[in-house]
Amino acid sequence: MFSSGAVKLLSGDPTWRDLTALEYHYWTQPLPTWIGWYANLLPPWAQKVSCASMFAIELGVPLLIWGGARQRLVAFVALTSLQLLIFVTGNYCFFNVLTVALCVMLLDDSVWPARALRLLENASPVRAAAWPRWVTTPVAALLLLLGVLQMFSPSRVGLDWPAPLRFLERAAAPLRLVNGYGLFAVMTTTRPEIVVEGSDDGETWTEYEFRWKAGDLSRSPEFVEPHQPRLDWQMWFAALGGYDQNPWFVAFMQRLLQGSPEVTALLHRSPFPDHPPRYVRAVRYLYRFTDLAERRATGHWWKREPQSLYLPAVSLESFRTSP
User: Fold this and answer.
1) For residue range 293-310, what is the model confidence (pLDDT) as tens digits?
2) Residue-number span of the structural domain to which 62 is assigned
3) 109 and 205 share a domain?
4) Into how many domains does the chain fold?
5) Do 46 and 80 reside in the same domain of the chain?
6) Tell me: the pLDDT tens digits for 255-306?
């Protein structure tokens, strides 16, 4: 949790430093919910207060974990409240559930019902052999040092570590003893979306509709967590780069041309239910949430404008002739 807050500041991203990041977050995150649409309507001052509160929880509250029962209870309430807000505004599969499960260990026995405690007392205790401190202390110190090195390595602080520390970081890297955690270290301020289209004649194009990602402007963002729809999730990342950086996407388009039932079953609607199209292509749009007035006037949750051609029209013949 602390790392998640620290990397936002260490990355040098201006939207985190001036507390405006949440003005973009709700509509640029991979799979927002309809509650996220309403959260996006909050005025700028409320978004800044929310962002400052998030930093207070991520950077300050973890220190309470080392306090007494009362401090740990405060930490539990703050950390789980943050997870609840994330849960209702965006789909992050089981991320929030796992985090809350860890936070349960912050609770003192006194907060649990007496009956539950009696059940635990009657359970057979499991005793583990204790490692001596002369073993655990150096290991803990090594993990702490590697964690600090990992946290600052992707930052823009420009720390020049001594050569022995750089050697230690490189030597330990293959062991995966520690890892960086940089969720939303740099806030995306636009939302490119890939719209996949099919055609029988190369002139008239019809859109494929995905189950969960942004597409149909009038379809509300839905809840899908704790499930993670992998295809819809990966489409968000694919839109941030080119198709040449996402070879799976080219394979996906080939399967649409083949009419693969396993692939089309991942979609909400195929415009070619009886036969696969002769051509497919992908167009990149810029999407954004509508505001309250636009929603009342059009009934749309999203608005969009075309940006560029993501993948030119291809056919099965294109794949047969490619090297």
Assistant:
1) 999 999 999 999 999 999
2) 2-122+133-175
3) no
4) 2
5) yes
6) 999 999 999 999 999 999 899 999 999 999 999 999 999 999 999 999 999 9
